[in-house]
Specification:
The protein has 301 residues and is an alpha/beta fold. The protein has 8 helices and 12 strands.
Length: 301
Amino acid sequence: MTFSTGIDIGGTKIAVGVFDKDGTSVAQKVMPTPSDYGELVRLCAALVDDLDRACGEKASVGIGAAGMIDRDRGSVFAPNIPCLRDHTFRSDCEKLMKRPVRLANDADCAALAEAFDGAGEGHKTVFGLIMGTGVGGGLIIDGRIHEGPHGLAGEIGHLPLPFRDALDGPIVECGCGQEGCLDKTISGPSLARLYHAMTGRPIEDPRHIVTSLQKGDADARRVLDQFYTTVAKAMVTVIHSYDPDIIVVSGGMNSLPGLYQEVPRRWERYALCKKLRTKFVPAKHGALSGLRGAARVGGIT
């Protein structure tokens, strides 16, 4: 196979893309994530068929999913994609796609892409952070995904926020069954909840906070200022656990204004080491990081 298709499954959308052997994108599509399991598998298979036609051959397939991967069963535990629970997702995809499918965590995929030829290129230890509908993490050491025996390495979304206080926003129950997880503290919906808590005004789309900031809204500035402190606390969990050379951020929240200046400015208040050399940067490949990594897991790029 000279082409590889990546599928990036998130809580709200599925992105697919096919890449040639040089890593050049041939075709891409984005669709909403179905809530029904059978519909989800059929959609993935249909999208793969579409991309096969676009590249003119049967491409290899890698899937990145926002959850914990059970390699033995080929299943995914994904609190933000509940329909995947208790299904043999990999084998069900293989039956419809009529080819082997490799399955990985979406944050692992994004981190792999960034470590290979993205913002983390040349670094020994790369931590890939996804901040979007949910929060995920992936760890790359010497160019290889480090999953651990249970696929839990880097799964910071389901750890509690350290040094938490009332200013960090409401404590919310997580899909994993716990409360106060990072997934419900530094994600997009978390920022919207923080805005509501601090201003008394509900907001559905956190992007509106950025729009308000650009118009000079003092409340938006105050909320983002607190949010960056909360993210800095969360990053201390990453730094103390993995001590990466670089943290590369992807996902829908990775373009917040001031994020890459303000978070490192604040994290030394909470970290054991007061002169951290850890870099905190946006993903070079942006929204394509997860796709490119999934395709690489699948075989070629």
